[in-house]
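ARCHIVE CARD
SHELF: 3
SLOT: left
DATA:
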Amino acid sequence: MIAGQVLRAILFDFNGVLVDDEALHQALFARVLREEGLSLRDEDFFANHLGLDDRRCFAAALQESSRPFEQPHLMRLIARKASYYQESIRSHGFQFFPGAIELVREAAGSGLTLGVVTGALRAEVEGALRHAGIAALFKAIVAAEDVNEGKPSPEGYLRALDELNGLPPFPPRLFHPHEVLAVEDSLWGLEAATGAGLVTLGVAHSYPAAALESAHLVVPDLAGLRLESLFEALAEASRA
């Protein structure tokens, strides 16, 4: 139930919601696999891997190719891709989606508590938020290194709830799941947020809106999105 409730916090996904780098991740993922003698079609990545963290992406690709691997090998692949990502960022910088930074600033200025729950590496997230000048606006960051199971497991969102409640500055009262909005661009992310009992907003940056219909509300993008209209739309969706 959404109507009549007050949302007190927003947890953002990172890749595909705040930062427009899904295509870069796909290209780097494919590059590392090519170096391992494997190939991945673009359509397979977006159908089966986008929304998963690097560990699960590489593990799935190796398993699909019947390629045996051990954990140290997997970690080397992740580290190599992370190195390529940093090289690209040093050359081209971070590209935020239109409206993303504005929405973050408006939410923080309105007194909402903010966090990030992502399958990205912490260094990537913190670097992007610093680059945009909004790092101090986020109370919690739950990144790939912080969980045993990435999305669609709800572990990351449950940990973020714990951090919202357990890290200073402490809230005047506990955040409950129905008071927290998760902003996601993939089915995996929406499943994770729903599993944690959160209100969900799907953003059709990476998939068509129809593919995100499990969200409480779906918007085409963040450009021009304002909190008042967003909360009104969530309430209307609940009534409908």
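SLOT: right
DATA:
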Amino acid sequence: MNSDDDSRERHENTSADKDMREARPATKALKSVLAGLLLSAVTLAVMAVGGEVFLRERAPSFKTEWPVVFDPAIGYRFQPGAEVATTNNLDYWNRQRANSLGFLDREPVPPEQRPGSCHLVLIGDSFVEAHQVDIKDKAQVLLEQMAAQKHPELKLTTAGFGISDTGQINQLPYYDLFARRQAPRIVVLVFVKNDFSDNSALIQAVNHAHDPAHQNKLFARRKPDGGFELQPIEPDWQKYVLAPPPDAEGSGGVRAWLRNNSGLYRWTEDLAWRGRLFVARWWYGPSAAAFGSDRIVYNAHLLAQRPQWAALLGSWDVEKTPAIDEVYFDADIAPIFQEAVAFTGFALDQFQERSRRDGFHLIILATQTMRRDDGSGAAFDRLARLAAARDIPVIDLYEHIRSHGGRVADARLRYDGHWSPQGHRWAAEAVLDYVGAHPALCR
């Protein structure tokens, strides 16, 4: 080997050694990264398995069972005697059984089996349905127990008739077909902020992609002279539903499988949903923050193409304020929401006609949702004006809570807007305070 070859070989060896020395830190870094990723993946897998096991142990009813049936004379109610299992995967996991009438309450007691009783019924939506709490913790049950202790002379008995997503017009069949048979002395309408919109066939059509004139619940409509009349339930309402958006999500896929089979996934998704709602309300304000707003906007534009709905829907800037249950806190509301308030007045007229005919006293319990947390309440004021014009007493649950030193936020579940057990207790107390102060209601 000559000197040139020897020199070249030493240079190549030196270069190779240098390359190896430079490569060692990079190789070590890569190995460290891969090891870290592997450790993270294992940790996440262990946490996922642990979380799944924990939630399955803690939440045996993590998959909702909602056995409702459609009755053309009523709308929707639960299958009588069926078990209802519900959860928001955050602060309630509950199972209860519907009574023989299809409501989440005790079995009804016929009038002849409670002679001399002063029977009181609560009629409302999801706040009276109250699938979030056990039957023993519901307002009507607590009210009967409290009355037996504080005012035994009243001989107060109670019942509850509530189904989610209904307003007072939708609830008229609950009285006509069920509560009336119980011969109540007092009927309490439990009013929630969304009830205004729930009394409008058009707004509910926008919300649920229905045809306003062919609804699956009892509604009201305008007569040619401008007055109101009841709009019968459409037995074949499904034939008239609106076409879905072109990009609508299907019911299948990986997400559906995970929701049906993974408690951890349901918990994570539900928590994320509420987190997005909190951020949206903070950023955009309550009246502009609505989940499903794209669907609401789509349905509104679709119905606005029909001449009979064009004027009302054209007056509503749906892109700006898609939160149909929050607008009633605003000073000025679009004509479509003004009409919803008018329909609510018609619903009160219908209940008042029944009170005169059947001889019961009509009362409204305004839930704490009718006021903002700071006590402001344009929604409450709208309801109060409707009630005052008809001489219907209104019990203000917000004021009851505050006057008794309570914290209004404690009336609802932490991750859900419905009454907590404490909320049910306050509602029962508020009604009992009023009835106790007006014993003539039971005579």
